[in-house]
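Researcher: I'm comparing several assemblies side by side, and this is the next one on my list. It has 688 residues spread over two chains. Same procedure as the others: predict the full complex and return the structure.
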Amino acid sequence: MKEKWYNEAAANEPVAISTRIRLARNLKDAAFPRLLDSIQKREVAEKVLDGFKTAFAERVDEFDIIDMGKLKEEAAYSLVERRLVSQEFAAAGEGGFLILSKDHSVSIMLNEEDHVRIQVLASGLQLENAYTMANQIDDMLNARLEFAYDARLGYLTECPTNLGTGLRASVMLHLPAMLASGSVGRLAETVSRLGFTVRGAYGEGSEVRGGFFQISNQITLGISETNAIDNLSTVVKQIIATEEDERKRLIVQPEVQDRMWRSLGVLRTARLLSGDETVELASNLRLGMACGVFKGEKIDPSAPGKLIALTGPATLTVQSGRKLSAHERDTLRAQTVRSIMNDK
Amino acid sequence: MKEKWYNEAAANEPVAISTRIRLARNLKDAAFPRLLDSIQKREVAEKVLDGFKTAFAERVDEFDIIDMGKLKEEAAYSLVERRLVSQEFAAAGEGGFLILSKDHSVSIMLNEEDHVRIQVLASGLQLENAYTMANQIDDMLNARLEFAYDARLGYLTECPTNLGTGLRASVMLHLPAMLASGSVGRLAETVSRLGFTVRGAYGEGSEVRGGFFQISNQITLGISETNAIDNLSTVVKQIIATEEDERKRLIVQPEVQDRMWRSLGVLRTARLLSGDETVELASNLRLGMACGVFKGEKIDPSAPGKLIALTGPATLTVQSGRKLSAHERDTLRAQTVRSIMNDK
């Protein structure tokens, strides 16, 4: 089986965790999904799937095609937990289809808010590469399907915030030092004035867990894709530099070193782990590894990523093959965590 | 170097940690130490030391003779932390002498509250053995020295609570399950009616740390040594049975198992450890080991005992050879703990 992109240990960067490019497209001769019943959605999906299969004829075995209407609830939410589909798409069911590459680096949602949402995911900061790949997929589909496009506005989308390029580029960053120092608050203000948004990836508001943040472009109209990506790239690199600078001051504190080490100890031994604690521990592990704290310890370089990707409640339910009580889930989560930590 | 008695791994029992027998004796023709100046104390000590050296002529190299007046404060308190001398004796200084066997199983304090306090320490529940040894030492000294003895009252001591046998027998017990269930409270009431006292070994009152308790006889007058020891032995065995019974209910709880395992993880990794936390962690480790929780893990069987014996503030100061800040001490304690945990 092909390794998932997020398990590629070597690609881990200290601050930038992953990159996502999304392009929103709609067929010219069909109403937006919101206005379609499930039979009409199925017709749209079949049209896109036909186009996809012709366009990707030589690579079709690299992909799974998933009928969301036939997927069990926990399997659908497991896709959300691994950030492969949106919450809304998982909930929509009937008429939704997912084209998912076996390495999970390409995820194309059919009949989400728009007819076609092409997503490309990559580890670290790879905006240009991911955009190039998304663009290729877009071109290949475009050769078989006619997308709704206006010469003045650009690509037409259900929601006006996507109008134009239909592009959303986002980068997941690990900012524990900026969270600890409080500079994350100022960051959110600054970047929003530049047309970007920052939000915590786990937990909300003051409850942000582990210092994981996602930064994305907001502007899609009156800007080229390349400009949007260049701007985001510039801002992200500045944030990375700030975080790395603040880490130097953070990591020399004995209390912080102690926290990193204890997190390693708990990850290796705990028998019960909540989702929130696992995110915190994974954050401490990632920070400790990035800062060279764990001298002499063998730790799978992809462990921090796996700790989060493989321990969501729905993912654990799928793994166990049955409904779990909260307590059983915490037990299975701890077991999964230990097997990740001992997989040296 | 001869191994200290408390490092003898094999002797560890699940509940009974250690036994102590103490005999209080005074020379017939001298006032109690409280009434002596340091020169007079020295005269008493020299008399006893002469008697000891003659009596133990063939085994004299098994002992160290320590002039407490010449001992640095932290070295004296390190003896208290390892329960080899009393707090009062460590503080008294000038005129106090300690005869300490190299394996730390025999500790004879000269000019504590009484002229001679013979102490014998042993791992687990060994009241009879320890009493036999204390009695032998007493007989050997008695052959060379004349102890104050009244045919009706028995041995004369400074404090009336020791009058008669001069015997205090005590057993250190690990009662985490009875502490958790609250039955320790009832225990204290019951045993006090039988003439015994129970007190927490670390921390006071509701702050008792780790469930370590010491139970001792109170009655020394109108009772034979053998009876006092038999009574204590009976009570201790009952407490041990209760604790073992309550452990069966405690240890099946997943939260408790989780706590044992996390304690193991933290002991192996922490970079800062307070004294209180170390006692708690050592307690969890001991309980987990006694209940067979840590399957597949290599842990030095004497680790729980060493974790407490070697991490007191004065003991760490002696180890480092200089005054330590609280922070330095927590760092050195964590380092000492890790070396104990990795000493497989």
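Model: For your comparison table: The domain at 5-242 of chain A is CATH 3.30.590.10 (Creatine Kinase; Chain A, domain 2).
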